[in-house]
Design goal:
InterPro entries: BFD-like_2Fe2S-bd_dom (IPR007419), BFD-like_2Fe2S-bd_dom_sf (IPR041854), FAD-bd_OxRdtase (IPR050260), FAD/NAD-bd_sf (IPR036188), FAD/NAD-binding_dom (IPR023753), FAD/NAD-linked_Rdtase_dimer_sf (IPR016156)
Radius of gyration: 30 Å
Keywords: FAD, Flavoprotein, Membrane, Transmembrane, Transmembrane helix
Largest sheet: 6 strands, mixed
CATH superfamily of the largest domain: FAD/NAD(P)-binding domain
Strand content: 15-25%
Number of domains: 4
GO molecular function: oxidoreductase activity
Structural class: alpha/beta
CATH class of the largest domain: Alpha Beta
Bound molecules: flavin-adenine dinucleotide
Cofactor: FAD
Family: Belongs to the FAD-dependent oxidoreductase family.
Oligomer: single chain
Amino acid sequence: MTETVSGLCESQKQENTTGAHTSDLSYPTFVVVGAGPVGVRCAQRLLDYSSDAQVVLVGDEEGEPYNRVRLSQYLADHLEQSELNNPVTHAPHPRLAEFHNRKIFEIDRQNKRIIDDQGQQLPYTKLILATGSIAARPEIPGVHLDNIISFRSLEDAQTLIELRQTANTIVIVGAGALGLETAAALKTSNNRVVLLARGGLLGNRLSDTAESYLSAALSALQVEVLAGAQLEKCFGKDAVERIALSSGETIDADGVVLCTGIKPETTLAEKCGLDTQRGVLVSPYLLTSDPDIYAVGECAEYNEQLYQLVRPGFEQAEICSRHVCATTDQARALPPYQGSSNDIQLKISHIPCFLIGSTNSSNDPNLRVLTFENRFRGLCRELYVCNGKLIGAVVVGAWEESHSLKQAIADGADVSERQLESFCEQGNLWQETREQTLKQQPDSYLVCQCNGVSKGELCTAIAGGKRKLQDLEIETNAGSACGSCRPLMAELLDIPAPNLVMRHARGILVISILSLVLIAIAAFSPPPPVSDSVQVSWYLKKLWYDNFWKQVSGYTLLALCVMTASLSLRKRWQKIKAGHLDHWRYIHSLIGFAALLVLVVHTGFRLGENLNLALMLVFLAATCTGSLVGVFMARNHHWTDIKLREHRKWWSRVHYALLWALPVLLFYHILAVYYF
Ligand SMILES: Cc1cc2nc3c(=O)[nH]c(=O)nc-3n(C[C@H](O)[C@H](O)[C@H](O)COP(=O)(O)OP(=O)(O)OC[C@H]3O[C@@H](n4cnc5c(N)ncnc54)[C@H](O)[C@@H]3O)c2cc1C
């Protein structure tokens, strides 16, 4: 048990060390059980809305609270671990106490205290359960073998990162949002990732057309999607070695990730006799069947509905905290919780995909579903229109109008027949008149969907001096959940968008373009003349013709070529883990560029004859394809067109093929220089 922030009252401090319990609280104490994103949000709001209450946050996970929502981006190497931090406050708060690595075992409702697994007790005035969910594991033979992992926590993510480094084939079971994000995050250039999609992609919420586009986009990332495949059995001695599907097919696999759904964590609530069904039953003010206990987030069941997303939890935390801190009269005037939407926004960097609003193809005669497709560019857009109003949309592939669309659906905006016709023909609703920048949008425009933060709120914070992305996030909470609105926040701040995909993208782009220019000069311009009259030419002549200097530049070139190969080693040799791959890529491109410059020194860009000509051409072709890969890599996250992204893969293969020829030609070149 660790107290990270001082501020517990004396009786609690005493209780912490002695285990003695004092139920006579002279101040209100609000205790939140569960330090997931919703528990943390609750603690923040309780501090905001109360003036004298002690707020206590108790969680059973090790370490400080983290942002579970962004775990898949962490797994995909798009975030450092420190970027997952999700503190209640950014500076010590006198009324806040936190306990981590402490599992609450029991609630003594009669004496209003909670008891942890070591028997220590903590009194409460109001208790908020934010115990979330646990991963559901299918009951199939062999599911308890090693390397069969559920993905729910930071610890799971770290285990998966290790698994990715060693496993040749990883099978992902379940094709909901978590399954898709996990599959994309685990795919590397030298492993096989198979996704078992028993009930279709995204929980069968897509039409066949939209599903085919999403499936194609995953295939472009080289994730193998097995539609309708159901896991039946896992085989192996200690760790999993093979899996069997219900179709009878078997797949050799050294890792299995279970993304087979979640189950609300209701153990505590059930044990103390609170009303539960699938989750802990709550009223419109998030009250359980005990008037002093609330439940929020994934563990709460409201109106027969469970939510598995963070935004509903945040909305519940807001209402619950206001209710906890309100006087009886104030509480009566508070707006009740009325349920939340179940919008999905995938966080796979190369696959923009979202489902918003109502996307049920119900039998309502007034419902119309309009579709725009562009196979070549991998675009599928479906609009759900009812009585002339936009009520929902499914989008696969990039769409500049996405933000306007989301706002229009949130507002239940009218849509004209002319707009719908234009949508069916060109895929756009508003054309250039509505394609506005964020700055031109109204203040009510919702920038952060997870936290419900509008453009107006962000502008107020910016006007109040929050000029950095991090400060803006701390002030408004925008961008703190899934993070997909951070580029928009950057746009408001007039700063470059945070690079969500690749570090050094700009540097790699510049180096690659410079290399291409140099190669073009080498290939298409005549070799530079050298005259004895000019001092510079004298030096060049020495470099190009003097035996000693030729050897110096030649061996430097050789050394640089060997150094560029280190990138392949970093990718393929599991023992080299130092530094993020993007840093290595950047260094690789810098060394490649340096090699080109040394080539000028060594040859004066004269192509030569016979063996030398072959060597020059292969070298230039290898650097040219490498530079093209650099350009595609640096721009990849801007391109949602699957075919365009395929170019990177194609040029990489040519680059590797050429690199195999280089050492052989170099060997004969050196031999020829010394022996013939
Ligand atoms: C990889 C991944 C990606 C996701 N991406 C998205 C996304 O893009 N968008 C989205 O909306 N949602 C996403 N989610 C879902 C989102 O993370 C959850 O909706 C959110 O975390 C729910 O928050 P919560 O606080 O209710 O529950 P949890 O996050 O589950 O937190 C509950 C906490 O309570 C603790 N606890 C439980 N019992 C006890 C006890 N007895 N004593 C003490 N502590 C206890 C648990 O250990 C846990 O730390 C994602 C989830 C995962 C795993």
